[in-house]
Records
---
Amino acid sequence: MSRRIDLIAEKTVIDILRKRGIDATIIGEECGRIEGKRGYIIMDAIDGTTNAVRGIPFYCCSIAYATDFRLSTVTDAAIIDLARGDLYYASKGKGAFLNGKRISAKKESPADPAIGINISGVKPTVIERLAPIIAEADHTRQFGANALEMCFLARGLLDAYIDLRGKIRPTDIAAGYLIAKEAGAKAYSDSGSDLESDLDVKTRLSYMVVANDGMRERLAALF
């Protein structure tokens, strides 16, 4: 059932793109790579498929445009919260928006941060790394859709988001990456360097997004 929904949703998005004359190469979880002429569309037609199938109202459609085959070249992004109808979007250098209103990540690290952590199917060694953060944080959350959780960080609802499983594809986060960054957040790899990647659907990532430098310092002290 899950795969069938993903296939239908992805085909719908691809059909819309082609009808509108968008001739970019399309990178998608189900379609893999469909060659085009200029630029790259990176999409996850339904992020949070399990939530959608089970009727849990937390899933989204995520789409981004990049000028080259690198995450850092994403210039435009949009994520629609399919359960609520909220539209998040951003263009490089122009800020991030929710339903037409500018949004921003929290500029200061609160005493009681809310941290999103994806631990689905996580290895015991990763749990060991995360244990100090889970123990220290007053509020940890896992909603089941990385892209939308990054939007929650971008609008100030979360202070950090962590996924160290090494399972995330660029298609899962390309749009959320730009929206979070344009809202003032910062994204890092598992090693602590600025998050960067190719856009290949076979690539797998571990990453952390923080609302501000203070939050990064607090988390770094716990790893």
---
Amino acid sequence: MKNLDFDLNSIQEARDKARRGLEAAKKMEKLTDRQIDKIIVNMVKLAEENAVLLGEMATEETGFGVPTDKAYKNHMASRLLYEQIKDQKVSGIINTDAEKKIISVAHPVGLILGLVPSTNPTATVIYKSIISLKAGNAIIFSPHPSAVKCTTKAVEIMAQAAEEAGAPKGVIDCIYQVTLAATNELMHCDEVSLIIATGGPGMVKAAYSSGKPAIGVGAGNSPAYIEKTADVKKAVSDIIASKIFDYGTICASEQSIVCERSNHDAVVAELKAQGGYFMSEEETDAVCKVLFRGKNYTMNADCVGRSALVIAEKAGIEVPKDTKVLIGKQDGVGKGYPLSYEKLTSVLGFYTVEDWQEACDLCYDLLDHGLGHTLSIHTENPKIVLKFSVKPASRIVVNSGGSTGGSGLTTGLGIAFTLGCGTCGGSSVSENVGPEHLINIKKIAFGTKETVNTVENDDLWNQLKINVSSKTSTDSKDSLEGNLFSDEILMRAIRRAIGDLRV
């Protein structure tokens, strides 16, 4: 291998790791629930012990976010996640339906490929490792090129913890020679059964195009609507705390604020009081020039996960030292309105509408650039929440922060760092991904009817035949050359049968 080019070496490493991972997956299938729980407990223990170290490594290597917040994300991905799933049944018999005589049996999917983003590298490794092993699987990771050191360190810690507690070697692994060729090899190799793709749109699309079953998640562009009945002070506090958590690197974080004309002044005053800086039109243009690249408004990586002060300095504008978020007013959505796009940093767009109907339409337009992800509403009117339930968002967070609520920290949703966006967002799931998504469910179905004479004993079918026969014998118009089941006759018979059943 020493004489091979780097990319060829990386492909060979991927193949070797995949083979070892598959063997580990086969051994995992034989472990009991008690053995798996022992493994998970030790993984949580070591993740907690190294949460601060991994948080610091992630921030230092990527330049994104806040070390203490990344450490807390590691805590979320380990201890808080474990508290939610520790009693979850995802192996063996998971449900029995005595009435229907059906037994549901869970079985691991096998070897999982986990793609890791640069925005949440260590928390993603911890989270995906725990949910994968909880479901009885093995997992191999492909790190993001800009987060290799912290990702591999997190993998090593999780692997050590699992193996110390009795898991087979190779149950958690990653490629160290990170290339697109190696990742592509893992996506297409026979050993991998499922891909969990958390990352940029290109990588997610590649995962779905691989021919493998995949769970991919799309980009977010979450609006936060402050409705006229909302507690403005609390709403603003929630939004700012959510947005500056790890400097906005969670994809469910708020991207725009929408308020009504009736509470506009109160919202603006509260935002200013809590550290929001409203930029002038010229300042907004200056910030957007450093924030985005190209006509598609792709974020400049140097601005991802940065403080408001850093963004302001890059843009050459002066802001108060206590500024937490930069806010730019926008009059529309799409091209020509840069702040209507996703901004994984300490910057927000700001909109004013006349009423909830206009807010509803605006949120729909904003979500068009982050279909299926997350929407947050601050209101005391439950009817408004129901009105927004038809919007293309898989998580509608009410009276809580978007990033913290969407990821399950401040709501009852499952703790997760892979947030499904549903089919409208190009995802195969619309929920926060957990162990329940990483299993195959077999159905053992016992007979409830006799196989012989099943058709003859079907009262509904017999009633349909009687009505059809009666109609064809008395109504010559329905007799189309003796075709008993012509479309017209059949539809009339079905309507008649339905009418009989309603009596």
---
Amino acid sequence: MLVNRARTAGISRMVTVGDDRRESAAALATAHAFPDVYAACAIHPVRANELDAPTKAALEEMVADPRCVAVGETGLDAYWVQHEPETTATMAQQEESLRWHIDLAVRHGKTLMIHNREADADLLRILADAPAPHTVMLHCFSSPLKVAEEALERGYVLSFAGNVTFKRNAELRRAAAKAPAGQLLVETDAPYMTPEPFRGQRNEPALIGHTYECIARVRHQTVQALAAEVNETFDRVYGLG
């Protein structure tokens, strides 16, 4: 079982993320089934056109649950608008959905977990003029260094996944090196973004140690020191301290 393999690998706590109404409900059910698993609930930006009144009501109930620690993943995704416009919510629909999710996070005092793909300028604009949630966390951070610097200056948290280990992503490693303690998390984005040397295989939490090793190396830390910092940030970001 995935959770048992994660425990064996030394992972003590995990957040499982929903990206539509059904998957958010499943994430919350998993969080209730396992004491070391928490949930994030939202509608993914590519499915922003699914955010109807019943879905909003369901998400309100899910996010109010103490086992839900974040509103996410929400955000903007321009990549799929370009590549699969027939099946992807428009950018206008995505912005409307994001603003609703921001309000949801503010009202419930939960962290806002952001998905961003090729929409840096619009995302920063919206976050700048919207009400400020408890914490803004940029999930699977993959943007240029200048975006990382702007986000860190605003106090956002950057969460790095296995793609930070890819040879071509030197700029992403520089961003991980610049993030202060307290503004950095480490994640899997499973089943995607499998770290080297397992790239191409299905990702899962048990493999996250390779991502920790890469980030610790560029930050000139031991893995143990980095893990201690991340655990402290995890508690603060998800309101578990």
